Amino acid sequence: xxxxxxxxxxxxxxxxxxxxxxxxxxxAKEALNGKxxxxxxxxxxDAIIDYADFTGDSFELSRRAAEQxxxxxxxxxxxxxxxxxxxxxxxxxxxxxLPDMGAGCSMADMASLDQTLECWEQLKETCPDQTxxxxxxxxxxxxIKAFVGENGGAVCTSSNCRNVLEWALAGGAxxxxxxxxxxxxxxxxxxxDQHLGRNTAYAMGYPLDKMVVWDPREELGGNDARPxxxxxxxxxxxxxxxxxxxxxxxxxxxxxxxxxxxxxxxxECKWEVVQKxxxxxxxxxxxxxxxxxxxGTEWAIGTEVHLINRLKNQHPExxxxxxxxxxxxxxxxxxxxxxxxxxxxxxxMEGNVVNEIKVDAHTRKWATVALERxxxxxxxxxxxxxxxxxxTTVD
Length: 395
Ligand code: 13P
Ligand code: SF4
What we know:
The structure is a single chain. By secondary structure, the chain is of the alpha/beta class. Helix content is 39%, strand content 15%. It binds 1,3-dihydroxyacetonephosphate and iron/sulfur cluster. Iron/sulfur cluster is lined by residues 79, 105-107, 139, 240-242, 268, 304, 330, 332-333.
């Protein structure tokens, strides 16, 4: 789809005070009652979460989008790739709005369709006797999701990555040979987050030397043909710039300063960080772990700062700190604020759909297939499979 840029916000929305904005948002929500659902990702600021009908990680919000019936609009308070997925998964009449078109994701932008097609050609040429199953992390454009859907693969999120990879290693939805067997060895091409791919594959028992990184700016992704053929996982060279801020030394520091503290991180963190942590999992997994532990539990959390601060406020009976002292802020998530939400809602109230996210029909067809495969594979939220605190279960 062609990305539409954010038009300047009418000045009035910048001049309103927070109480005025809140009053106007509440009035608009009331007027749109029964026609609207607001979905809010865990990384949104508290002021936005206050108006979300549903909050969750990207898997949960996709599920919520798919089950909305009888309404006209979904306002997606998150980033662009999440709103695209919501548009694909919602029933036909539902229109999806992203309050600020500038809310993108640098990781999703690290894999373009052209680069993907080029990679696919080169891989097929280098490994003609193998079955290659493409899997993309939710944090990718609808075009990449459509590509994996059309080629026998699926989307995964950080909460069901391991289960999706198990499905893919059994051949995914790729064509079987006439005798029903897969063609040769099964290889996974994983987009665009090398860290989620590596952390999950390692937890499944694959050694690091069975994984190669594909740099889209280099011939054969920067690899020789032999290691490329031998690899079980080809990991796209992408990463999240927020989670890249957490380093192994931060875990060492916490171990020295707070010997009783549990370290829990998102699997977008580097492998070295995840190895030193006690637990790793999706944003929903992190929330559930904190909710399930007794008062007095101490946590150092490695993920986006808005979620950590919210958990800190909601659980004063626990001690919660950010794993590093840097500002681990997702600046694009942060673009969704009260002025933009108010502007989008007031336009809807007048029948103007601003910032509509609409995926074209061709992309939608195969992206739907890839996303529905994802929704059918339930996750554990705990891709690295490390030990959970006593008495905790995660569904
Ligand atoms: P979750 O799938 O855990 O919601 O994470 C999405 C994301 O963008 C993390 O950076
Ligand atoms: Fe993208 Fe990272 Fe922000 Fe998640 S935290 S939306 S991966 S930039």
